[in-house]
Amino acid sequence: MAEAKQMVDALVRGREGSTIAATAALGGVALIVGLALRALPRRGPVQDSAGPSHDTSPPAAPRTPFDHTEVSEDEARTMLRAMVAATLADGLMDAAERERLYGALAAAQIGDAGRAWLDKELTEPAGVDELAARVSGPEQAARIYAAARLAIDPDTLQERQFLKMLAEALDLPGEATARLEQELGG
């Protein structure tokens, strides 16, 4: 399925009545990357212990908080899986929620393959350990957690427990989850 980034964008934009949806004009993936970047502790530049570098290559373009160019389709698929798992964490998926998901996919012109993938994921959502196994570093962990958190308003004990277990499985620092909650108004 090569439509994962489009599906993430569509699902984030499809959040009704949310200020998040309104700010997702530059895309759901970009919004998630920005949220995750701001959630992680700031790190200073790394100094090589061997001394100053003699690298003559031009400096890389500075990254913006919404630089999502490094997010692969595979990572976007993991974001989607985290979003679906979070949505199903309370064990309830009513007709309105399902229609919202499919409406977002239709608005983004996602085809039958995307819908079939979503149907399968809705019947067999990923567990937190399965999601965490696909993560290779703290930045990616923060992005996956941000996607899951963005998919829901954690208003049930089950949803809050899912997010707590996901953060633990991803080895995400408590201050990062607290910053994400603050950013999302939670």
UniProtKB/TrEMBL annotation:
The keyword Membrane appears for this protein: yes
InterPro entries: TerB-like, YebE
Annotated stretches, region: Disordered: 44-73
SUPFAM superfamilies (UniProt xref): TerB-like
Entry annotated with the keyword Cell division: no
Segments crossing the lipid bilayer: 20-40
UniProt keyword terms in alphabetical order: Membrane, Transmembrane, Transmembrane helix
Signal peptide positions (record): none
Protein known as: DUF533 domain-containing protein
Organism: Methylobacterium tardum
